[in-house]
Design a protein that fits this description.
32% helix; binds guanosine-5'-diphosphate; GTPase activity; GTP binding; Probable translation initiation factor IF-2; translation initiation factor activity; nucleotide-binding
Length: 460
């Protein structure tokens, strides 16, 4: 590295962050498990670095799994970091500087089932966030006439390709390609991936047998290397930036944050600014924790402390005063910068996600900032006014707020993916506040609308 390169920090390439999306039961979880499983086998003990909330697969392991498909010397990105929680809920709620936290996505489609409502939802989200993606056409092992091809990656021989050309599998794959084309993408089988911006690669896989996983990793790695390299260039020693995945109580550490760090580094004892429920939280890092390798866990001591960690990684951060931190919120290391500037940066990022409220309306509680925003948008479309929208469990205070509404239909709390604190339940029973709980946005809204209709009928 030349002197000019190091003048304002050390430039380097970080690992691209990958998210898995798709319709329920199409195999997102199984696929992630299989990717982890096959790389653990190929990579031998310790090759996969342990992360919190994410799995890092270094380039040498990717290339071992991919066998003849990848020549590691063609790549200079360090590997792939998979976010462990699949689904577009986590995709939309995890952001970095206004965009999606994930750099690339895998859209899982069950070949037998084709595109389903959540597949289309996922595609819309990917379009909106302009996230490049690969389609994993999953469950090929269940297609009648499927012949396992365990010895070789699927596209390795022309014979294997033509052998498959007549099969039912091929028909199903072309159906998927047709559906992608209905969505405005030109799609093609993965060995002819040319440009992810228009031409989507479709990779036949089985999360059950593992067939196609080498090909999938190859396509992901290829996309990242070819199109995302510039975006992966970071100042590897600069002040860290990340996104909170979860706020969690951890025995011995109090409230901790599970964070995906996508830029720079974070060190023990440094001051950080974290998006909080009222105001940004300024605190000092007490410990940076990583999971211990499985072989080393003998006691309850599940984590090991590290002094410093660099992007991209998933880590747990222990620090005082994190109780009001929010999942989905930004985390920034202050280091040499002016603290007020960093606070302003966090505030600005939070305000992008903020939800508009009215004088009168319902109360909404959600698990993360992103989901709150998604609900607010859906409520806006359904013309349901929101009086208060907050991240967090339903607390007695929320019941009090809801009970102040003028109209009965607004004495309501819509709770998305959150718990009901015990006192809140009692308070709701005592007051005339109606509670709706669901993990599906449109269901919350449907139930609420039905309730309003009932109320109106009763009043007539
Ligand atoms: P998710 O809801 O998208 O995370 O789907 P899951 O990973 O939970 O998978 C749903 C079901 O499909 C489970 O019973 C899996 O075992 C099964 N499954 C997933 N992938 C495959 C596959 O490639 N082949 C077969 N035969 N079954 C699969």
């Amino acid at each position: 590295m030349s002197d000019t390169d190091t003048r304002d920090g050390e430039h380097g390439l970080r690992t691209p962050i990958v998210a898995v999306l798709g319709h329920v039961d199409h195999g997102k979880t199984s696929l992630l498990d299989k990717i982890r499983g096959s790389t653990v086998i190929e990579g031998e003990a310790g090759a996969i670095t342990q992360h919190i909330g994410a799995t890092a697969i270094p380039l040498d392991v990717v290339s071992k799994v991919a066998g003849s498909l990848i020549d590691p010397s063609d790549f200079d990105l360090p590997g792939l970091l998979f976010i462990d929680t699949p689904g577009h809920h986590s995709f939309t709620t995890l952001r970095s500087r206004g965009g999606a936290l994930a750099d690339i996505a895998i859209l899982v489609v069950d070949v037998n089932d084709g595109f389903q409502p959540q597949t289309l939802e996922a595609i819309n989200i990917l379009k909106q966030s302009q996230t490049p993606f690969v389609v994993a056409a999953n469950k090929i092992d269940t297609v009648p006439g499927w012949k396992p091809n365990e010895d070789a990656p699927i596209q390795q021989t022309k014979e294997a390709q033509s052998d498959r050309a007549s099969s039912m599998l091929d028909e199903k794959l072309y159906e998927v390609i047709g559906e992608l084309s209905d969505e405005g993408f030109t799609a093609d089988m993965y060995w002819r991936v040319q440009d992810f911006r228009g031409n989507i690669g479709v990779v036949p896989v089985s999360a059950e047998t593992g067939e196609g996983i080498p090909d999938l990793l190859t396509v992901l790695m290829g996309l990242a290397q070819r199109y995302m390299k510039e975006d992966m260039a970071i100042d590897v020693t600069g002040p860290g930036a990340g996104t909170v995945l979860e706020v969690k109580e951890e025995k011995g550490f109090g409230t901790t944050l599970d964070v995906v760090l996508y830029d720079g580094t974070i060190r023990e004892d440094e001051t950080i600014v974290v998006g909080g429920m009222d105001d940004p939280i300024v605190t000092d890092v007490r410990a940076i924790l990583k999971p211990r390798p499985l072989a080393e866990i003998r006691t309850e001591d599940r984590f090991e402390k590290v002094e410093e960690i660099a992007a991209a990684s998933g880590v747990k951060i222990a620090a005082p005063e994190l109780d009001r931190a929010m999942a989905g919120a930004p985390v920034r290391v202050v280091r040499d910068r002016d603290i007020e500037e960093v606070i302003a940066e966090v505030r600005a990022e939070l305000s992008e996600i903020e939800v508009e409220t009215q004088e009168q309306g319902v109360v909404v509680k959600a698990d993360t900032l992103g989901s709150l925003e998604a609900i607010a948008n859906a409520m806006d479309e359904a013309e349901i006014p929101v009086m208060r929208a907050e991240v967090g469990d339903v607390a007695p205070r929320d019941i009090s707020v809801a009970s102040t509404a003028n109209e009965d239909k607004h004495k309501t709390i819509l709770a998305f993916n959150v718990d009901l604190l015990a006192d809140a339940e009692q308070r709701a029973e005592e007051s005339d506040v109606k509670l709706f709980e669901s993990g599906v946005i449109y269901r919350l809204i449907e139930e609420y609308e039905e309730y309003v209709e009932e109320l109106e009928r009763a009043q007539q």
